[in-house]
Automatic annotation (TrEMBL):
The keyword Transferase applies. One of its GO terms (molecular function) is 3-phosphoshikimate 1-carboxyvinyltransferase activity. Pathway: Metabolic intermediate biosynthesis; chorismate biosynthesis; chorismate from D-erythrose 4-phosphate and phosphoenolpyruvate: step 6/7. PROSITE patterns: EPSP_SYNTHASE_1 (PS00104), EPSP_SYNTHASE_2 (PS00885). It catalyses: 3-phosphoshikimate + phosphoenolpyruvate = 5-O-(1-carboxyvinyl)-3-phosphoshikimate + phosphate. NCBIfam families: aroA. InterPro entries: Enolpyruvate_Tfrase_dom, Enolpyruvate_Tfrase_sf, EPSP_synthase, EPSP_synthase_CS, RNA3'P_cycl/enolpyr_Trfase_a/b. Catalyzes the transfer of the enolpyruvyl moiety of phosphoenolpyruvate (PEP) to the 5-hydroxyl of shikimate-3-phosphate (S3P) to produce enolpyruvyl shikimate-3-phosphate and inorganic phosphate. It comes from the Bacteria. It is an enzyme of class 2 (transferase). Monomer. This is 3-phosphoshikimate 1-carboxyvinyltransferase. CDD domains: EPSP_synthase. The gene is aroA. It comes from Thiohalorhabdus methylotrophus.
Amino acid sequence: MTTDKRDDRLTARGGSVQGTVQVAGDKSISHRAIMIGALADGVTRVEGFLAGEDCLATLAAFRSMGVRIEGPDAGRVTIHGVGREGLRAPEAPLDMGNSGTSMRLLAGLLAAQPFPSELTGDESLRRRPMGRVVSPLTSMGGQVAALGEEGRPPLRISPVGSLKGINYELPVASAQVKSAILLAGLYADGETCVTEPAPTRDHTERMLSAFGYPVRREGSRACLQGGARVQAADLSIPGDLSSAAFFLVAAAMVPGSDLLLEGVGINPTRRGALDILLAMGAHIELQNERTHGGEPVADLRVRGGELRGIEIPSHLVPLAIDEFPAIFVAAAAAEGRTVLRDAAELRVKESDRIQTMADGLQALGIAAVPLEDGLVIDGGPISGGRVDAHGDHRVAMAFAVASIAASGPISISGAAAIRTSFPDFLEVARAVGLRIEAENE
Ligand code: S3P
């Protein structure tokens, strides 16, 4: 999907971090708004939609299944819901680009449809494990085949008469797998319950509730009964804490910085990065806490100071799973050692984030030792240098903000994927005072 390579190489030259900005809309919530809005009866109006490539892949998939969607236009999207039985067979395989969320959640929804479909994606997505969704969907009676080696994409989905509810214990903490099962469960006979080994983001449960679909939550279990209808709702999507994390780190690690990030989602199942940075000594205040569309939101004020290395508590790992590239940069700038364990999931994200981050940090003169399930980083002086983001949006953005604490420019290749989750990253970065150039601009 990412064929335009104009900004595949960035050079970040540091700068300052000051001012007031808004970050891009939440990626996880934007995907779900399209999916659940499409299944609803009535018209759903969304504000704050993230027009990044990942969410646009979801949007295009629903258009090709007959859903009329207007926008995105300055974050506004209007979804003309077709109702729970209204999706039509797509004419061609659905291309999910780089987006694991699109592929896994859609696998659940499509397993329940009365038409065949196929899901594919870019090179990175075709390397990612899908057995974790294929297995529970098969137990529900679905026919989902992973056509790649060892349970990898593409996925071929064949229609079955009906699905049956399931009581599933997730072997890995994964909101994508939980959500795939719950979306299939909307169509299943009886009740579908998912129990998670540790809390993961609960946007699907919250959004279904906001759309009038009853979801029962008991401790670590989320349950729903198949067969009810979804009612259109208007939504305002908060800023993405995963995008804000790069600026939180940029500001927190340099004394003198002072930044206000407005309207950022602080859902308790997502706020691990805040808690980790606070434990590292970051000066972050939550201001003006409020609720938007069933999601907690705040303005985040962050001021620069000294950070210290910590042992990252295991229970925070699933709550900060997307923020580790940024947290590793904070660890590199911190005094002392930071140890992360129990985070093997990082190896199967858009890139192997343990290896890509360790390699990049080492190229910048930081002692970063990869472990099977984590990373040990000794903070120290960060030098300039050349790093490879391996087409991973969050790795690219992490190294761009690392330049704030570095003694020389950082040149980042494989950075075009930033458009998947934060298309206006460069504008926001420049607005707060970072000096970043994209090749051929
Ligand atoms: C997501 C869940 C997480 C996260 C991903 C988005 C979601 O993945 O890493 O970026 O929207 O449900 P896992 O649930 O596989 O950990």
